[in-house]
Model the fold of this input.
Amino acid sequence: MKILKKGAEADVYISSWNGKKSVLKIRKEKKYRNSSLDTRIRKQRTIREAQIISYVKSFGISTPLIYFVNYKNFSIYMQYVKGKLIRDMDEKSIPKTCLQIGMIAGTLHQNGIMHGDLTTSNFILTSKHLFVIDFGLANRTEKPDDHAVDLRLFKEILNSVHANVMKKSWKNFITGYEKSVGKKYCKKILELVSVIESRGRYATVV
Done:
């Protein structure tokens, strides 16, 4: 197996499943947690991630196919998606793609899903579709505050990784998001994003 990504919660490998190139995601043990608690948390999160990835397909969003979930070693075998990460695209192409990302984010929120790690590293553009990956931090939630956290994170990523095209990309993202959720809800979420930003800006470290 070849390591694809090492993360705080899990490691991701290039592997194979029934002769098909696949991605294997294995959740890491957390030594600081009680052993039985750690086992329960990793099992719950592995199950939840696989369920959400499959559920998201039901409302038309492209996600990797789930091949197999192993509850004993907290791993998921899933489809290898061949394409280009949005993070690595030419800067001129990113703003246009952000319109579609905004629509996808809005569709997720409309259906009660918070992605939890909404970044340009978690979208892959193939020849036919824009795939969303890594639902390891995703949750089922209808709370506007949670949806605002998704948007705030995406805005931060644009500002830090794609600063040269940040304004146009964010504008397009919001246009797409509004198309999915409507003007009223979009306005509400943007107001909450501003509240989150103000908390960070004026927080005092004691």
Residues 202-206 have pLDDT under 50 and may be disordered. The first strand starts at residue 2 and ends at 6. The chain has two domains: 2-79, 84-202.
